[in-house]
Automatic annotation (TrEMBL):
<feature type="domain" description="HTH araC/xylS-type">
    <location>
        <begin position="163"/>
        <end position="261"/>
    </location>
</feature>
<dbReference type="InterPro" id="IPR009057">
    <property type="entry name" value="Homeodomain-like_sf"/>
</dbReference>
<dbReference type="InterPro" id="IPR037923">
    <property type="entry name" value="HTH-like"/>
</dbReference>
<dbReference type="InterPro" id="IPR018060">
    <property type="entry name" value="HTH_AraC"/>
</dbReference>
<dbReference type="InterPro" id="IPR003313">
    <property type="entry name" value="AraC-bd"/>
</dbReference>
<protein>
    <submittedName>
        <fullName>AraC family transcriptional regulator</fullName>
    </submittedName>
</protein>
<keyword id="KW-0238">DNA-binding</keyword>
<keyword id="KW-0805">Transcription regulation</keyword>
<dbReference type="Pfam" id="PF12833">
    <property type="entry name" value="HTH_18"/>
</dbReference>
<dbReference type="Pfam" id="PF02311">
    <property type="entry name" value="AraC_binding"/>
</dbReference>
<dbReference type="InterPro" id="IPR050204">
    <property type="entry name" value="AraC_XylS_family_regulators"/>
</dbReference>
<keyword id="KW-0804">Transcription</keyword>
Length: 273
């Protein structure tokens, strides 16, 4: 296989068609197109590619954005090959109207965008973090659109919007709600504005608020005597392992140990007589 590694999956995140992590040494992509935006970062090595018959390069300190329906190829630019991570975005997530700008300037030298793309990949790498992934995706797309010259969105008053989003999150602690659905219910507000308005008003992003509410619900259910496997589903976690990871991160212990500590509490003193 010449050192080749490849992993691909489709996360349950609106707007993302596929995630691909790969290492190639000698493989060369023939000219082809996608019906999605290709959001690419290189972690090692470098890539040479032609986009619409013009030569370009992708290196580690840049973000590369290739538009849908425009022919491109790809091959290693260094003897050791390359390692890349790709998110394929549905065409309307960035907007087909920005295709021309992306053809002209596919390489984006933006350290903040690079960090945000890496953070997005981190939360896409396992189930249970869909709202966080959607929130991070919204910030990535907003910055991409800014690089491509898209006009800013006109948005409703942020404090009211933040309160309304908090009410939606409180009503969906166990089932969850996507930013896409929340935006539609809140008058078509842009997801990026939802994230920024909520963070400015409450000091943390929507996904972090929701996780905190889920941990609180899990604590209450554990103290009521429910087993961790049942608590995970009732509190909105993907599975028991997801509950355990999150619970340990917030409280420094596992759900089972937390429940046992409650069972060992001293009995109330007998005040009779």
């Amino acid at each position: 296989m010449d050192g080749q590694r490849l992993r691909a999956w489709r996360p349950a995140v609106p707007g993302i068609a596929e995630v691909l992590h790969a290492r190639f040494v000698t493989h060369a992509y023939p000219p082809h197109t996608h019906d999605a935006w290709t959001l690419l970062v290189v972690d090692d090595g470098a890539i040479r590619y032609d986009l619409d018959r013009h030569g370009h390069g992708a290196v580690a300190d840049q973000v590369t954005l290739l538009p849908p329906d425009v022919p491109h190829d790809g091959r290693a630019a260094t003897p050791g090959g390359f390692v890349k991570r790709v998110v394929y975005l549905d065409a309307d997530v960035v907007g087909r109207d920005l295709t021309g700008a992306a053809v002209d300037h596919p390489a984006l030298a933006d350290p903040l965008l690079r960090r945000r793309v890496t953070e997005l990949h981190r939360v896409l790498d396992g189930p249970g973090e869909e709202l966080q992934a959607e929130s991070r995706l919204a910030l990535v797309v907003d910055r991409l659109r800014g690089h491509l010259g898209a006009p800013a969105h006109r948005e409703p008053e942020p404090r009211r919007l933040a309160r309304d989003l908090r009410d939606l999150l409180d009503a969906h602690v166990d089932t969850g709600i996507t930013l896409e659905t929340a935006a539609a219910r809140l008058g078509g507000a842009h997801p990026t504005h939802l994230v920024r308005a909520f963070t400015a008003s409450f000091g943390l992003p929507p996904h972090a608020y929701l996780v905190g509410r889920r941990v609180d619900r899990a604590r209450a259910l554990l103290l009521a005597g429910q087993p961790p496997a049942q608590v995970a589903a009732a509190a909105g976690f993907y599975d028991q392992a997801h509950l355990t990871r999150t619970f340990r991160r917030y409280l420094g212990t596992t759900p089972a140990k937390f429940a046992r500590s409650a069972a060992r509490r001293p009995a109330a003193p007998d005040r009779a007589g």
